[in-house]
Amino acid sequence: MTLATLSDARSELHRIFGFSEFRGRQEDVVERVLAGQSTLAVMPTGAGKSLTYQLPAAMLPGTCVVISPLIALMHDQLRSARANGIRAATLTSADADWRETLDAFRCGNLDLLYVAPERASQPGFRDLLSTASLSLFAIDEAHCVSEWGHDFRPDYRRLRGLMDDFPDVPRLALTATADRQTRADILAQLAIPEDGLVLAGFDRPNIRYAIRPRDNPVQQLARLMAEEAGPGIVYAPTRRKVEELADKLGAATGRPVLPYHAGLDAEVRAANQHAFVASEDMVIVATVAFGMGIDKPDVRFVAHVGVPKSIEGYYQETGRAGRDGDPARAVMYWGAGDFARARMRLEEVEEARRQSERERLDALAALVETPGCRRALLLRHFGESPPNACGNCDNCLDPPQVSDATELARKLLSAAYRTGQSFGIGHLQKVLTGSMDERVIQRGHDRLSVFGIVAAEEAALLRPVARALQARGDLIANEHGGLQLAGNARAILKGEMPLAVVMPPRRRSKRGGAGGG
Ligand code: ADP
Ligand code: ZN
């Protein structure tokens, strides 16, 4: 066997893939793999992770076993590998050609063998692997191995036992999203040396980030669509919302808009996805089920109606915009209720995971609430040291006004407390501003000490303050929408903790700065 070198790799890169150069840190990963060194590659979506195992797989003798979590993803990879003349196969329940695959594998005629972690962790698979020669284990979506990761899957934990039985086969773990803790965990779980980490830049400079409170999502999205004529993805939290938004946006804008969620028939889903990939102006409204493995470089915007699950999720989803490098937008429209619901769901999370889930939510709240550069916060979250301002996010382009809202927050918390912690912001606002509303009088809330203590000119700040308190978890909504004190509410009430709120800039006509609403 002759040793494959990096210069071989460059010519093979050209011969097999038709690319003249490696991109980013692909070369570092390929070099390590060819040298038989186990590696963790953390590279953003679209950076070209697949090539870092496909190229060595095509060059090295033996088969590269690829662990991949989704059948659809495997089949996409299979198609593109085969299109490049790489000998690849999948072993999934959807495949009818198992016999051919197994024969090819045993005879050393396969470069790539894709399997799901559930199959890889079965004892029979180990026996199968020992009948052939292996070049590499590639573990895609490797953050699934870590409980710190945002998508922990127990079957990934069993891969270690399998791979340990083949100690001479190097491992290449790949992921787009792993913060510091998750990275350390992946290295430990998969026994990859610490110096095997290859971390590529997370910055997507062509994406302009904006995060806005949600008032009228249809109107806000229609405005965004009027500014961005190219293809777009709108993420909505539920199937019902997806359907509703798709209908209303289509009607409001006259542009082609299709829904996508797991409740649709498989054929409809496939047809809608296909139509979107082929279109130059379509908007797809989808749940997070949409997007993994979709190669559409010209997506001009990704919008979130509601908050994503985590910063990792946000980065991954927004990362589907502008893969062609041309300017693209990522706009999130959030509401206090999004955080209220997420914090309520925390109570159902098993004890062991609750704290890390809470930290995930706090990090997301910090991103939403920051008056500073969004990109800087994102990149710091992934362990980079970016400059403090990027010049291409809403807060850099249009610095928001920050108000000291400590006194107002105390008044609001006090009103929530004195009305029995069972009213929403609408009612509290009426009490605080001294409205002679029927319900206020009926409840006797006009006789409370907090009645009318907020001046009219301050009233507009009440909602942003409530939103900020809810995002932080200092106010939480019960199932009837009643606001209850939680978190640091008592410290704020006692005047021991200041609170600053970001005032969203007034809607303006200037393109970009207001982020479509
Ligand atoms: P990831 O898995 O990191 O999200 P992919 O492996 O799907 O990314 O690659 C994204 C796109 O980049 C693909 O269309 C791929 O063909 C392209 N690509 C990968 N490597 C290179 C390269 N060295 N030069 C040009 N294009 C590349
Ligand atoms: Zn910025």
UniProtKB/TrEMBL annotation:
<dbReference type="GO" id="GO:0043138">
    <property type="term" value="F:3'-5' DNA helicase activity"/>
</dbReference>
<keyword id="KW-0413">Isomerase</keyword>
<dbReference type="InterPro" id="IPR036388">
    <property type="entry name" value="WH-like_DNA-bd_sf"/>
</dbReference>
<dbReference type="GO" id="GO:0003677">
    <property type="term" value="F:DNA binding"/>
</dbReference>
<dbReference type="InterPro" id="IPR044876">
    <property type="entry name" value="HRDC_dom_sf"/>
</dbReference>
<dbReference type="GO" id="GO:0009378">
    <property type="term" value="F:four-way junction helicase activity"/>
</dbReference>
<keyword id="KW-0067">ATP-binding</keyword>
<dbReference type="InterPro" id="IPR001650">
    <property type="entry name" value="Helicase_C-like"/>
</dbReference>
<dbReference type="InterPro" id="IPR010997">
    <property type="entry name" value="HRDC-like_sf"/>
</dbReference>
<keyword id="KW-0233">DNA recombination</keyword>
<feature type="domain" description="Helicase ATP-binding">
    <location>
        <begin position="30"/>
        <end position="196"/>
    </location>
</feature>
<dbReference type="GO" id="GO:0009432">
    <property type="term" value="P:SOS response"/>
</dbReference>
<keyword id="KW-0547">Nucleotide-binding</keyword>
<dbReference type="InterPro" id="IPR027417">
    <property type="entry name" value="P-loop_NTPase"/>
</dbReference>
<feature type="domain" description="Helicase C-terminal">
    <location>
        <begin position="217"/>
        <end position="365"/>
    </location>
</feature>
<feature type="coiled-coil region">
    <location>
        <begin position="339"/>
        <end position="366"/>
    </location>
</feature>
<dbReference type="GO" id="GO:0030894">
    <property type="term" value="C:replisome"/>
</dbReference>
<dbReference type="GO" id="GO:0006310">
    <property type="term" value="P:DNA recombination"/>
</dbReference>
<dbReference type="GO" id="GO:0005737">
    <property type="term" value="C:cytoplasm"/>
</dbReference>
<dbReference type="Pfam" id="PF16124">
    <property type="entry name" value="RecQ_Zn_bind"/>
</dbReference>
<dbReference type="InterPro" id="IPR011545">
    <property type="entry name" value="DEAD/DEAH_box_helicase_dom"/>
</dbReference>
<dbReference type="InterPro" id="IPR032284">
    <property type="entry name" value="RecQ_Zn-bd"/>
</dbReference>
<dbReference type="InterPro" id="IPR002121">
    <property type="entry name" value="HRDC_dom"/>
</dbReference>
<keyword id="KW-0347">Helicase</keyword>
<dbReference type="Pfam" id="PF09382">
    <property type="entry name" value="RQC"/>
</dbReference>
<dbReference type="Pfam" id="PF00570">
    <property type="entry name" value="HRDC"/>
</dbReference>
<dbReference type="Pfam" id="PF00270">
    <property type="entry name" value="DEAD"/>
</dbReference>
<keyword id="KW-0227">DNA damage</keyword>
<dbReference type="InterPro" id="IPR006293">
    <property type="entry name" value="DNA_helicase_ATP-dep_RecQ_bac"/>
</dbReference>
<comment type="similarity">
    <text>Belongs to the helicase family. RecQ subfamily.</text>
</comment>
<dbReference type="GO" id="GO:0043590">
    <property type="term" value="C:bacterial nucleoid"/>
</dbReference>
<keyword id="KW-0378">Hydrolase</keyword>
<dbReference type="GO" id="GO:0006260">
    <property type="term" value="P:DNA replication"/>
</dbReference>
<keyword id="KW-0862">Zinc</keyword>
<dbReference type="GO" id="GO:0005524">
    <property type="term" value="F:ATP binding"/>
</dbReference>
<keyword id="KW-0234">DNA repair</keyword>
<dbReference type="Pfam" id="PF00271">
    <property type="entry name" value="Helicase_C"/>
</dbReference>
<dbReference type="GO" id="GO:0016787">
    <property type="term" value="F:hydrolase activity"/>
</dbReference>
<dbReference type="GO" id="GO:0006281">
    <property type="term" value="P:DNA repair"/>
</dbReference>
<keyword id="KW-0175">Coiled coil</keyword>
<dbReference type="InterPro" id="IPR018982">
    <property type="entry name" value="RQC_domain"/>
</dbReference>
<keyword id="KW-0238">DNA-binding</keyword>
